[in-house]
Amino acid sequence: MEDIIDRESITSAQLLSCAIIIDERNKHIQRLASGRTLHLREQNLTPCAPPRPTGKELYCSFCGNNQHKVERLIAGPSVYICNECVDLCVDIINEGKSDAEDKNSD
């Protein structure tokens, strides 16, 4: 993990956030592959509208960059993620896939 942190110039908190996203994504993939549906009440979530602009600056919940420093800021329920953090997460996911493929080809 320290190697990834150094190589990608990220904080341990950012790496942990990506790991949480990947773990949740994998859970959703397994659920979708099984054909089981998941209702909002099973997740203890309630539907909500996207946040309305308040005149305040918005910040990425992962890297802390504000909405003016990034190309795009994606809103979730009370969290935001910028395009740069999404790209980082995609790179980490793809690296994991590449490592798994290398192990399987041996």
Automatic annotation (TrEMBL):
Which one of the record's GO molecular function terms can you name? Answer: zinc ion binding
Q: What are the recorded Gene Ontology BP terms?
A: protein folding
Keywords of this entry:
Chaperone, Metal-binding, Zinc
Q: Does the keyword field hold Metal-binding?
A: yes
| Residues that coordinate or bind Zn(2+) | 60, 63, 82, 85
Q: Which branch of life, at top level?
A: Bacteria
Domain ClpX-type ZB: residue ranges: 48-101
PROSITE patterns the record matches: CLPX_ZB
SUPFAM superfamilies xref list? Glucocorticoid receptor-like (DNA-binding domain) (SSF57716)
Q: Which InterPro entries match?
A: Znf_CLPX-like (IPR059188), Znf_CppX_C4 (IPR010603), Znf_CppX_C4_sf (IPR038366)
- Record-stated family: Belongs to the ClpX chaperone family.
Name listed for the protein in its UniProt record:
ClpX-type ZB domain-containing protein
The source organism is: Salmonella enterica
Its lineage reads: Bacteria, Pseudomonadati, Pseudomonadota, Gammaproteobacteria, Enterobacterales
